[in-house]
Write a structure and sequence with these properties.
With about 500 residues, the protein is α/β, with parallel strands linked by helices. It contains 14 helices and 23 strands.
Length: about 500
């Protein structure tokens, strides 16, 4: 019986489906809830099969909730996927607040070795960042990065440029997004020093950007306009050396885990996401919250279908209404561009066993654990409330991960069933949903939750993940850092001039 449990899983007692944990062949007999079910066709790893006959038009249940509507009659033991399942979601909805218990008991404090900044913020890295105000100086910023590596030593852990295509010829929200995100990154505590590199004639020039950062430490945040100097690279390197001389005096010291701000990223990338990695990250989030720390969940389109689970965990009615606005504002964004709201799973998602947005979202929200939602953040807004927060950002990996960093995350956790080499401005921990992919892409994956379907409980894996995050927060580099990857991307939703 134990062997069979490892081959397939019924997630919730009310489910009409089970998930193949390994590839299963047609004709295999599966025993679930004391009943023998014969598979009618091959079932790929992560994909679903029916535990009972399902009529056309009937809701299909997984995770104890509907994941769509049967397009046709589905027989017991039959494969369930996009060919016979469609979304059951509509457009804008009316929501009612039904508060559920969300108490997280405090647990013993844990220390990590971090950097205490003069403004009260805490960093987990001591890097020097080169932030272009406009895409026109991207190549210059990257040239400065290459030539400045000579200053990486001691407490100066990296020198990184963050090129992007924006900063000029933008209007409205897009221009505001660019300025806000850049301003957030300039002030990020993982940077022990920052060079803000402008061109001189751009909309988001240095003078404008100074208005977005407010008070700042002029010894650690420096500005250079390329048009104002004869040799911008030589001038920049002089500034980088000065910043490095200051930053190399910074030292790690014991800091409470309550100061950690962790971003939670990626939804259901395969059929095992909602069984292994995402619930593990959810348990991890509860651990961080129990120690007085902060987590942020984003990718609003990947909440569609499971949003009520988050709404009912809102700490109060005000936050509930903010969450409703978060969801409906994003739906209106889709509608304003005449796009379908509920076509979210990517080709890779579908190959991995995700059939509908409900399927994806129910796996996605598990990353939030069971804590109360304490705050709802606009895109680019810096987190201020301890505990679990929801952040407005799209599902795009680069944009959403950057948004988490900009809002204050010192580390981003990224669950994946397919694997990805990408990074964000902060350490980005890749968490595999399954063992085969983790073993295949060892140069990408930092932590695997595949053991959950073999010989480990979710609680055991979550404790191990917490211990690993403490190590990363204390300076242990993740795979993307070892590879020298530092990416950033800014949300665009409007007109480019």
């Amino acid at each position: 019986m134990e062997e069979r449990r490892l081959e397939y899983l019924k997630i919730n007692p009310d489910d009409m489906t089970a998930v193949a944990l390994v590839p299963l062949s047609a004709g295999k007999k599966c025993v679930i809830d004391g009943r023998e079910i014969t598979l009618r066709e091959d079932i790929m790893q992560g994909h679903k099969f029916a535990l009972t006959d399902i009529k056309a038009g009937e809701k299909v249940i997984k995770y104890g909730s509907p994941i769509g509507i049967a397009k046709e009659d589905i027989k017991e033991g039959q494969w369930i996927h996009t060919h016979n399942l469609k979304t059951g979601l509509g457009d804008l909805l009316e929501y009612t607040y039904h508060k559920v218990p969300t108490d997280i008991e405090p647990t013993k404090d844990v220390k990590f070795m971090g950097y205490q900044r003069a403004n009260g913020k805490v960093g987990v890295r001591n890097e020097i960042w080169i932030i272009p105000t406009v895409g026109c100086v991207n190549n210059v910023a990257q040239a400065i990065e290459r030539q400045a590596q000579q200053y990486v030593s001691g407490s100066v852990e990296a020198i990184c440029a963050f090129p992007h295509p924006y900063g000029c010829s933008q209007m409205g929200d897009d221009q505001e997004y660019t300025r806000t995100i850049l301003g957030d990154l300039i002030l990020h505590p993982n940077a022990g020093g920052v060079l803000v590199l402008g061109l001189g004639c751009e909309n988001s020039n240095i003078g404008v950007m100074k208005d977005y950062i407010g008070d700042y430490d002029d010894k650690r945040i420096r500005f250079l306009s390329a048009q104002d100097t004869e040799d911008e690279i030589a001038s920049a390197l002089e500034i980088i050396k000065e910043l490095a001389d200051i930053a190399k005096e910074d030292k790690r010291e014991p800091i409470s885990a309550s100061e950690l701000i962790i971003g939670l990223k990626c939804g259901g990338s395969d059929g095992l996401s909602g069984i292994t990695a995402n619930p593990t990250v959810g348990k991890f989030s509860d651990i961080i919250v129990s120690k007085g720390g902060t987590t942020m969940l984003t990718e609003v389109p990947e909440m569609f279908g499971a949003e009520t689970l988050l709404m009912n965990r809102c700490a109060n009615e005000e936050i509930f209404h903010e969450t409703v606005d978060l969801i409906n504002d994003f739906k209106n964004y889709f509608k304003s561009h005449n796009q379908t709201i509920y076509e979210n799973p990517s080709p890779g998602n579908k190959k991995g066993g995700i059939s509908t947005l409900e399927d994806k979202s129910l796996g996605c929200v598990q990353k939030s654990g069971s804590a109360a939602v304490q705050g709802v953040l606009s895109y680019g807004e810096v987190v201020r409330k301890k505990g679990l927060n929801l952040l407005s950002a799209p599902g795009n990996d680069l944009v959403a991960a950057t948004a988490l960093a900009a809002s204050g995350a010192q580390i981003v956790l990224f669950t994946t069933g397919r694997g990805t080499p990408f990074a964000s401005p902060v350490p980005t921990i890749k968490i595999a949903t399954n063992t085969p992919m983790a073993e295949k892409k060892k140069n990408w994956i930092d932590f695997s939750c595949g053991r959950i379907v073999q010989d480990e409980t979710i609680d055991e894996t979550a404790d191990k993940l917490f211990d690993y995050v403490i190590k990363v927060a204390s300076g242990e580099p993740v795979k993307s850092e070892q590879n020298g990857f530092h990416d950033m991307a800014i949300f665009k939703r409007g007109v480019t001039l």
